[in-house]
Specification:
Pfam families: Oxidored_FMN. It contains four helices and three strands, in the order H-E-E-H-E-H-H. The chain is α/β, with parallel strands linked by helices and about 120 residues long. Strands 1-2-3 form a three-stranded parallel beta sheet, covered by helices on one side. Helix 2 links the parallel strand 2 and strand 3. The longest helix is centred in the first third of the chain and has 12 residues.
């Protein structure tokens, strides 16, 4: 499950995101979820952070026990071989957020290059 109580992307905001996020995390503790993916640790299970992490920041947040896993959504869209790039510290393709949620089948999801 992913919660994004602080997101206003695509006009999906909430008037009280702090209260909403805390309420949802605590309410979900009653269920046997495999993981919760959100911006702040209020959940007792596997905690995944997301939101602009690069290789260095992702490694740091896990090493400091501030998260169990790191999600690299935007970077994954632009780097179809992201695990390999992170492993060998290769240069990353820059993403174009304007192409993320459009119906164009040529520009966006499928046109980012793999490592040579």
């Amino acid at each position: 499950m992913r919660l994004s109580p602080f997101s206003n992307y695509m006009e999906c905001g909430d008037s009280n995101p702090n209260a909403l996020g805390l309420y949802m995390a605590e309410a979900l503790n009653k269920h046997e979820l495999l993981y919760l993916h959100m911006v702040e640790k209020s959940f007792k299970g596997t905690f995944i952070v997301a939101g602009g992490y690069d290789r260095e920041d992702g490694n740091k947040v896990v090493a400091e026990n501030r998260a169990d896993l790191v999600a690299y959504g935007r970077l994954f869209l632009a780097n179809p071989d992201l695990p390999k790039r992170l492993e060998i510290n290769a240069k990353l393709n820059k993403y174009n957020r304007d192409t993320f949620y459009i119906a164009d089948r040529v520009v966006g999801y499928t046109d980012y290059p793999f490592l040579e």
